[in-house]
């Protein structure tokens, strides 16, 4: 892993209170980068901040913020004004499983906003500064299902495909300015979000779930070397099959059968 402090003294991690975001925060702190933790749950953020500050001797700030609120990115920008922010990890996300027309439109619009529009806002707001000073890094969290349309997760998969396309394009645009952009596309990962998913039971799909620490480690190790990384050998095989071996129509049917079998009674319109 390169010296991450070369990007700047601080890293912002959204969705930092649990799962992959929590592991990004831990590993950035272990690399001696000061961390700004962003999520809705203030108590969990403060607990994590105390833990990693004590363990690694870095400064850890917390910003309890609902990224779906109007003006949230402007508020975050004000909270970090004056800090030498060098890395932004856009990790926060949500999804709803089930037939699209059975889900509340407001919920699906929230998915589109948090999973696609907020990463765009973060890229635009902090990318401008990174490009201006010719130093910085952006990590966008997509998903291994971004390679194919996915029935019963149609909007979520489409949003993650957008993030993948956005990040790969920005990697090219900003490389000449000394700014690194990486998209990480995890497969099924052992997180609270997966365990507590509404409308779908991931345990019925079988297969091992990846440790979120491995996802964060793979991403940070790949930063500055690649535009896109998929953690895990089996996830890479599945990605290659979806892209190069299976006709797109076959991939869609395969995903449709797999996801439909995992849906639960509360799929569609669940809160």
Strand content: 5-15%
Number of E-state strands: 7
Q: Kindly report the CATH topology.
A: Rossmann fold
Q: Span from first to last CA? A: 40 Å
The CATH homologous superfamily is called NAD(P)-binding Rossmann-like Domain
CATH top level label: Alpha Beta
CATH architecture: 3-Layer(aba) Sandwich
Spans of at least 5 consecutive residues with low confidence: none
Largest β sheet strand count, sense and barrel closure: 7 strands, parallel
> Overall pLDDT, averaged?
92
Total domain count: 1
Specify Rg, calculated over alpha carbons: 18 Å
Number of helices: 9
Order of helices and strands: EHEHEHEHEHEHHEHH
Key descriptive features of the protein:
globular, 7-stranded parallel β-sheet, alpha/beta, Rossmann fold, single chain, 271 residues, 48% helix, 9 helices
What is the strand and helix layout of this fold?
Layout: E1 10-14, H1 19-30, E2 34-39, H2 42-56, E3 60-64, H3 72-79, E4 85-90, H4 105-133, E5 136-141, H5 154-175, E6 179-184, H6 192-195, H7 212-222, E7 228-229, H8 233-245, H9 248-262
Parallel strand pairs: 1-2, 1-4, 2-3, 4-5, 5-6, 6-7
Helix pairs in contact: 1-2, 1-7, 4-5
